[in-house]
Structures are given as C-alpha cells and as structure tokens.
Design a protein that fits this description.
Length: 154
C-alpha cells in the first residue's frame, strides 16, 4: 500500500516536473494508475479456454479444478472470467462448462489486485446522499452491465 505521504510526494514530484497544479497532477497520476489497471483487468478477462484439461489454464491458473458433472460424469472446464458483481469491483466470477453435456456453473473469485473497474460517488438530485456506482474499465465486458464502449451516445 502506498501511504498518504508517499502519494503526496509522488504528486509534488509531478507538479515540479510538469508545472501542473496539485489537483491536475493528482488527477493525471490517478489516470495513469487506471491505465495500468485497465490493462490488467483486460488480461484477467481475455483468454481462450484450455484445449485440454491437462494443460495449465490460460486464466493464470488461478481457478479451481473443474468439478465432475453429476449428469454425464465428465469434468467441467474453466471457460470464462467475468465481473461478478454490480458494485464490488474486486469480485469476479468464473464460469465452468461441462465437457460432456450442456451443464455449467459459476464460482465467485475475489481478485483485490485486479479490479474490473472503479467505484465512484455519483451525486443524486436534491439533497439525497451521493450513491456509490461502479464504472467498468474500458474494454472490460460485464455480463450484467451495459458497457460504456457500446453505449456511448457520442
Ligand atoms: Zn482457469
Ligand atoms: Zn455433463
């Protein structure tokens, strides 16, 4: 974890180097951090399911071994990893599909170092308290959330 003091030093260094104001420098540093986290989130999501079960899973092998199917007794294979919550950006979910029939299941996974987005406080109208809303990193697909990339009105 970066301490608050270390964070301020980083911002001051940038102000000295670029001549930016404190707020602009802070925003740019945050944007840079988001860029690397965006790349990380895309890496977590974008991979192809393994061809064979004896090969290491391309997700980084951070998944569980697939369970045996109760219907056809074949094994399940890890096929996808998607954001698994609408508000908690550290929660992903792994999808497993049976290699013998159409059975499938999902397992939640917590990846604190690889969030799929950022949580922002969005002001509401009038005197209502702002509400926390998760925003997807660009390029990350959420099965239950409209992607900003697809729904950009401009
Ligand atoms: Zn996997
Ligand atoms: Zn099956």
């Amino acid at each position: 974890m970066t301490t608050n003091r270390a964070r301020k030093d980083v911002i001051r260094d940038r102000m000295t180097a670029t001549g930016e104001t404190y707020n602009v420098a802070a925003r740019n540093i945050l944007a840079m951090r988001h860029t690397s986290q965006t790349a990380e989130a895309c890496r977590v999501q974008r991979w192809q399911p393994p061809v064979r079960l004896d090969l290491p899973c391309p997700c980084g092998s951070t998944c569980e071994p697939g369970e045996k199917c109760g219907r056809c007794h074949a094994l399940h294979k890890h096929v996808a990893r998607n954001p698994g919550s609408l508000v908690d950006v550290e929660v992903w979910e792994d999808r497993y599909e049976c290699m013998g029939c159409s059975a499938s299941y999902v397992v939640p996974v917590l990846l604190p170092d690889s969030p799929w987005g950022v949580v922002e406080m969005v002001p509401q109208g009038g005197v209502a308290e702002p509400v926390a809303k998760a925003r997807l990193y660009p390029g990350v697909l959420h099965p239950r959330m409209a992607s900003e990339v697809n729904h950009d009105p401009s």
